What we know:
Tetracycline Repressor, domain 2, elongated
Amino acid sequence: MVTRREREKEERRNYILRNAQALFAEKGYLGTSMAEIAQASEFAVGSLYSFFKSKDEILATIFEVHIENVLVEVTRLKDNVKLEPREKIEAFLDSLIRIYVDNQDFFRIYIAEARGVEWGVRTEVGEFIQKGTDQYIQILKEIFQEAIEKGFVDPELDPEFLAHLLRSFVHSTVIHFLYSKRDISMDELLGVVRHMVLYGIRRREIKDMEPVEGFRLFPDTDI
């Protein structure tokens, strides 16, 4: 049983993480000091070190928490036997985009740190990002594999390629949503993403006149 003391310590730890995340998103990781994190969290610097030994550990913990939350959610969708393949893909898109939009501070930090991974910069956080990404791709690959086996996705398509493609599409879409100044709601964004993934770019009137087919990456080609 968790004691009140342990619960209070965990709450303080989470409070530090939230404040550090906001500062990292606003000023950048390198531009933020432990003293600033302590001040924002209403702690003395010495007290802050009793929770985290370094700024690196704070950043790593932020990534650990968020990436684990994403993996738990996509695993839950993958293992939901009540959902058909199409429903799993739609639920995946909706859930992932909402996670990103609801955690904008973290996503801005993620974008900056993920660039280091893309450039081959090897850090503790970078290794954690890569490991989490590999797990994420594997889960999404299994969702597409099931969709292929049940006849919803074209069997000529590689489920791993589809997983990488969908991940890249969702990430770039959310980046545009977060950083552009266009007046679009999240529900409108979700509608565009669902339409693009499931139907491509054909006019809606044409789509509605045709029977519902299985998922094809480019419906009007032989690919």
